[in-house]
C-alpha cells in the first residue's frame, strides 16, 4: 500500500531520538520512504491513501525479546510456586503432552494479544516451532523462533533446529527468523552447549547473513543457584570432558560460559538477574545483548536484575515478558512501566531508567538484540514499514507534556489504535484484521475444558 500517516506526533527512535510534532510517515508497500513535518511533505506525494493521526502518537511498535508464545494455553495453570518446582512439577510434565496443534492454537492467542497491545515482533523459544512460526506469520507479525534444546533430547534437537532454520529463516517476506536455543546451563551440559554453539556457526555460514543473523538465545542467571543446579545435573556424568568442565570453579554463569568458549555478540541472554562483576565485564566485552524480564522475575521471586549497572557499562538491554505462564500476560506496556518503576524503587534513585531509555529498550535496543536493527526498531527512511499508532484521546492521556513520560507512566496497551507491520494493517482502529479473535478465544476455552475436564476453567 502507498499511504501517508499524517498530523501525528512521530517518535522516530532514531539515533538523535527525533520527535516530530504534526509529523508524517510516508509508506510505499513494505517500506518507509519519507518521514518529516506534514506541512513540508503534504504536496510531495499524490494519490496516496491518507490516515489522519491527529492526537495520536506514531512510533515503532514494541518488540517482545523473550517469551514462549504458545504458553498462553497454560496462563494461570500453576502460580505462586518457586521456579524449580514450578518447572519440574508443573510445567515440564504438562508440556510433554502438548501437540503441534496445541502449539498453533496457543500461539494464535499470543499473537492477537500481542498485536492488540502494540507488539509487532516476538522472540519465542519453545517446541514445535514450525507451528509458532506458522501462526505468527499468518497473523502478519514478525517472529524469531527457536526450538528449545535440552541434554536429554540431543538426538532430535539438532535435526529439528537445522530443519527449522532451513525452512523458516528469513522466510515469509522476511517476517520470520530462527535462533539456536539452548534452554539453560542446568539443563544443557557443557559439551552439548559447545556443540550447539558450533551448530549456530555452521547454520550462519549456510543460511545467515550480517543483516539476518542466526542468534543464540538462552536463559542465563535467572536464579542465584544456577551453577549449583548445573553441578547437580551433570556432576555425576560418565563423560570425563563434562565432569572436568562441571567440576571447575567459576565466578558466575558467564565465567562458566566463557570457559566453554561460547560467548560472542550473537548471544541473546534472557534474565541476567544474578551476575558477578566478572559476568558483567564479560557481557560488556563480548557485546552480548541482555533481555530484562522484570514481571516474570518478580512473580517467580527470582530476584532483580542489576539493570542500572548493566546500562552504565553500555550493555545493550531490551525487554521481554517471558512466557505468559510466568507473567501472566504478554503486555509490553506493563513491562515498560514496571521496568521504570522497579529500578527507581530498588536504587532509591528517581533518576535511573528515565522514560526515554525504557522506550528505547522496547524498540531500537530490542531490534539490536535480535540483529534486526537495519530494518526495524525505528522510523527512518528505508526501514520496514512497522508503525504503532497510539490514541491520546482518553482522560488518562491528558494533558501531554512529554510523550515518553506519557508512554511509560500513563498510557496503557488499551490505547493502541493501530499496528502496521511490513506495510500491512494488522490492527486497525482496535480491530485485528488478520486473525479471528473471538474464534481463537473460544477454541482455547474448549481446549482447556477438554484437556482438564475435572478442573472447571472458572474454578
Ligand atoms: Zn523464559
Characterization of this structure:
The termini are far apart. This protein is 38% helix and 22% strand. Strands 1, 2, 3, 4, 5, 14, 15, 16 and 17 form a nine-stranded mixed beta sheet that branches. By secondary structure, the chain is α/β, with parallel strands linked by helices. The protein is globular and about 75 Å long. The chain binds zinc ion (ZN). The site of zinc ion has 6 residues, from loops.
Shape: globular
Spell out the CATH superfamily of the largest domain: Metal-dependent hydrolases
Kindly report the average pLDDT value. 96
Q: Spans of 5+ residues with little confidence (pLDDT < 50)?
A: none
Largest sheet: 9 strands, mixed
The ligands bound in this entry are:
zinc ion
CATH fold-level label of the largest domain: TIM Barrel
Task: Give the total of beta strands.
Answer: 17
Fraction of residues in H or I helices: 25-40%
Query: What is the percentage of strand-forming residues?
Result: 15-25%
What Rg is obtained from the alpha carbons, in whole angstroms?
Answer: 22 Å
Write a brief caption for the model.
A hairpin with a 2-residue loop joins β15 and β16. It is built from 17 helices and 17 strands.
Secondary structure layout plus pairing:
Blueprint: E1 2-11, E2 19-28, E3 31-37, H1 38-41, E4 49-52, E5 56-59, E6 62-67, H2 83-95, H3 100-116, E7 119-126, H4 129-139, E8 142-149, H5 154-168, E9 176-182, H6 190-207, E10 216-220, H7 226-234, H8 240-247, H9 253-259, E11 267-271, H10 277-285, E12 289-292, H11 294-299, H12 307-312, E13 317-319, H13 332-347, H14 355-362, H15 364-369, E14 387-391, H16 403-410, E15 416-421, E16 424-428, E17 431-432, H17 437-451
Parallel strand pairs: 1-4, 1-5, 6-7, 7-8, 8-9, 10-11, 11-12, 12-13
Antiparallel strand pairs: 1-2, 2-3, 5-14, 14-15, 15-16, 16-17
Bound molecules: zinc ion.
Amino acid at each position: 500500500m502507498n499511504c501517508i500517516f499524517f498530523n501525528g506526533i512521530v517518535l522516530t527512535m532514531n539515533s538523535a531520538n527525533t520527535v516530530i510534532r504534526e509529523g508524517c510517515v510516508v509508506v510505499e508497500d513494505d517500506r518507509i520512504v519519507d518521514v518529516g513535518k506534514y506541512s513540508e511533505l503534504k504536496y510531495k506525494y499524490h494519490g496516496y491513501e491518507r490516515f489522519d493521526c491527529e492526537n495520536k502518537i506514531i512510533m515503532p511498535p514494541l518488540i517482545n525479546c523473550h517469551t514462549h508464545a504458545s504458553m498462553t494455553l497454560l496462563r494461570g495453570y500453576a502460580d505462586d510456586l518457586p521456579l524449580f518446582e514450578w518447572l519440574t512439577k508443573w510445567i515440564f510434565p504438562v508440556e510433554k503432552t502438548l501437540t503441534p496443534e496445541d502449539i498453533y492454537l496457543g500461539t494464535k492467542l499470543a499473537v492477537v494479544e500481542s498485536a492488540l497491545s502494540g507488539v509487532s515482533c516476538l522472540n519465542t523459544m519453545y517446541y514445535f516451532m514450525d507451528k509458532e512460526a506458522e501462526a505468527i506469520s499468518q497473523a502478519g507479525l514478525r517472529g524469531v523462533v527457536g526450538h528449545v534444546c535440552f541434554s536429554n533430547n540431543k538426538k532430535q534437537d539438532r535435526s529439528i533446529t537445522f530443519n527449522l532454520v532451513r525452512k523458516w529463516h528469513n522466510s515469509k517476506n522476511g517476517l520470520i527468523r530462527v535462533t539456536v536455543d539452548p534452554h539453560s546451563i542446568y539443563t544443557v551440559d557443557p559439551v552439548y552447549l559447545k556443540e550447539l554453539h558450533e551448530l549456530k556457526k555452521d547454520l550462519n555460514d549456510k543460511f545467515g547473513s550480517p543483516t539476518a543473523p542466526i542468534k543464540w538465545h538462552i536463559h542465563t542467571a535467572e536464579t542465584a543457584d544456577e551453577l549449583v543446579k548445573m553441578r547437580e545435573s551433570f556432576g555425576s556424568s560418565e563423560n570425563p570432558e563434562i565432569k572436568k568442565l562441571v567440576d571447575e570453579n567459576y565466578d558466575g554463569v558467564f565465567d562458566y560460559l566463557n570457559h566453554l568458549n561460547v560467548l560472542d555478540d550473537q548471544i541473546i541472554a534472557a534474565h541476567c538477574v544474578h551476575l558477578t562483576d566478572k559476568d558483567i565485564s564479560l557481557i560488556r566485552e563480548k557485546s552480548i545483548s541482555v533481555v530484562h524480564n522484570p514481571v516474570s522475575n518478580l512473580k517467580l521471586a527470582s530476584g532483580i536484575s542489576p539493570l542500572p549497572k548493566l546500562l552504565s557499562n553500555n550493555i545493550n538491554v531490551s525487554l521481554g515478558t517471558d512466557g505468559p505462564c510466568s507473567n501472566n500476560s504478554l503486555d509490553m506496556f506493563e513491562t515498560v512501566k514496571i521496568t521504570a518503576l522497579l529500578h527507581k524503587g530498588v536504587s532509591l534513585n528517581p533518576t535511573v531508567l528515565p522514560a526515554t531509555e525504557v522506550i528505547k529498550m522496547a524498540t531500537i535496543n530490542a531490534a539490536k538484540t535480535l540483529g534486526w536493527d537495519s530494518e526495524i526498531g525505528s522510523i527512518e527512511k528505508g526501514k520496514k514499514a512497522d508503525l504503532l499508532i497510539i490514541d491520546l484521546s482518553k482522560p488518562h492521556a491528558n494533558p501531554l507534556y512529554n510523550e515518553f513520560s506519557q508512554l511509560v507512566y500513563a498510557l496503557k496497551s488499551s490505547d493502541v489504535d493501530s499496528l502496521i507491520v511490513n506495510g500491512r494493517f494488522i490492527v486497525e482502529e482496535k480491530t485485528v484484521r488478520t486473525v479471528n479473535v473471538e474464534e481463537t478465544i473460544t477454541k482455547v476455552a474448549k481446549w482447556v475444558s477438554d484437556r482438564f475436564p475435572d478442573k472447571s476453567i472458572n474454578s
